[in-house]
Amino acid sequence: MTSPAENSDVSTHFRTCPLCEATCGLEITTKGDQVVRIRGDRDDVFSKGFICPKGSSLKQLHEDPDRLRVPMIRRGDDWVEVSWDEAFAEIHERLLPLLDDVGRDSLAMVLGNPNTHNGVGTYYLRPVIHAAGTKNVYSASTVDQMPKHLTSGLMWGNANAFPLPDLDRTDYLFMLGANPVASNGSLCTAPDFPGRIEAIKERGGKVVLIDPRRTETAEIASEHHFIRPGSDLHLLLAIIKEIFDNDLVDMGRVGEFVNGVDTVRDLVAGVSVDEAAVATGIDSDTIGRLAAEIAAAPTAVVYGRMGNHTVEFGTLTSWAADVINVLTGNLDSAGGAMFASPATIRIADETPGGRGYSTGRWSSRVGGRHEVNGEFPAAGLAEEIETPGDGQIRALVNIACNPIRSFPNSERLDAAFAGLDFMVAVDLYLNETTRHADVILPPLNPLERPHYDFAFEGNAVRVVTNFSEAVFPASGPDEAEILARLALVLGGFGPEADPELVHDQLVDGVLDRELKSEHSPIFGRDKDEIVAELKKLPPVERIIDLRLRTGRFGDGFGANPGGLSIGQLKENPHGMDFGPLVERLPGALKTKSGMVELAPQLIVDDMARFEASRSSSNGRELLLIGRRHVRSNNSWMHNITTLVKGRSRTALFMHPDDAAAREIADGGLVEVASAVGKVETAVQLTDDLMPGVVCLPHGWGHQVEGTRMQIAREQVGANLNELIDDAIIDVPSGNGVLNGVPVSVAPVA
Fold it and tell me: How many Å apart are CA 448 and CA 445, to the nearest integer?
């Protein structure tokens, strides 16, 4: 072992990985300003040493020469490095006069999912959006999980209260459209998801996976069934029908506060299990058996994710999964679908009832697409930029998003972005989207900033909390300061306004609510006393500390000595575990009725749309689905050598029978065509795919001019989203339809 004298500049740091939803603990060894090693933190209370390849890549991200470190301004065809003051002055001098001339709704906000992976985004995006003063807000949510936001809002009154599979206590896990071995979990924060699946089986439980592909998760599931892409709703409705027809309804204690059971019974009265078998490819006997098993299991949970949210009836599919959990007594019950109870909230004083949830408060200018969760569909962004007239989008603020690789019909969107009058980007890279910007503001890399997961602790399958201090000193302003200054510029306060104004405003908003709440441990306390205590901390830590100290385990600023605070978390770098999820209903129900609304009118109306629908292949007989790899999440990860090394993972997967019918050879080059675009890619034949289905990964296609992502440019791969039709969405939620896309595949001579 090296002596302390010889090793005086070697340090060990513990922090949470911010690169996916699993929130794994990392042990990072540094020497001076260099990362020596990253491995899983074996003492982390949640992940217990589990790590995926992404976690160790933080070293390469920190060192990446392509990563932007100072602001950039476009001057003609050239990029110029400038100071932060110059960058904000440029925004002030060019963007504000444009908005004064054409109106605030000529500005669009586009937000990527890294904002959720960073606790700063949870709070600091709000003042930016408010200062922007536009209804044109778009995000990655409408190419991912918006159906789950919508059904959660409609059924329990809180669009962010996702029912989570209680993995550590369930006897029967039924998954659709999810591949957690590759994704590490989604809308379900559970480090070592594969280990948790194995644990279900080891304790005598069962894991059933429904997926058009025999995925990595299928390999460890108890049972896997192929299903025709986009037909999950047929399966779930047939299961609901079987539950009613066989008198399997037993809602348990939740039954006394559920509305709409008879309406759901009527909605599925015409469902035919035999027709569902034809639609899905899963035989009638199997459907009946699965329904009986879910109902009979001591504890069970239906968990559906991206594969069945990004389809034409994604909202109904999300809803149907939750209906099964309710009807079988598995909602808000240990081992079933439960709601998170993070350390930053209080649950003892919850009472049912609230304002409820609504959508469609405003509509988009061109497509008339209605607002959901304060956002318009990502699929409608291009038409709002292209179409002249009052309210045409002429400027854009893009924060941590690469829509030209992740939004539908991305080639159309690329052309639309080229026509913008002005664009600001907050991003680490000059990528396919930010190359259209006029100003790029690069945030710190993850090792230079502290970290707290507001969002993912709110999706965690246990009540855990972690705070990570920065590993290295900040090389520039942190994201809170960048977003605060951007908000002040957009709000007309000028580029020299003090960001402390925004920091104080955010703390005041939380603090004032607490001081006025009779349930708060600081009710009626002197505000100046609390503010003085918080001012001892850096801006971001003030909100974290305030939320922790007024939360369910908090010290209440002295009211509960020894209680939780950010200081206590700093003394516990491996995190703190407060146990499994707890029952939260009916108190957490914020519907107007204070009840679970099993059959909201919007759902009833959309069932009529579903019943009237007819499947169409548009003359293309294959259905395209996406796929995920454990080494990839967002497209910028393709610029990290350790994540892209080895055999290419960008080929189109195709069943040998489908290939033989088209005279396509394994490894050959093929053209994949949809209603809106075509791409060329290599093909890989595999019987791990259901016949009639082809599969292409997301986020690739980096061979464009004007970017600075050298490693990514060297990777061969097609852009999946060139094939996604932006005219087709899940109507209630506005979610893009990324799975079950009709395509043709032909060999390239």
Answer: 6
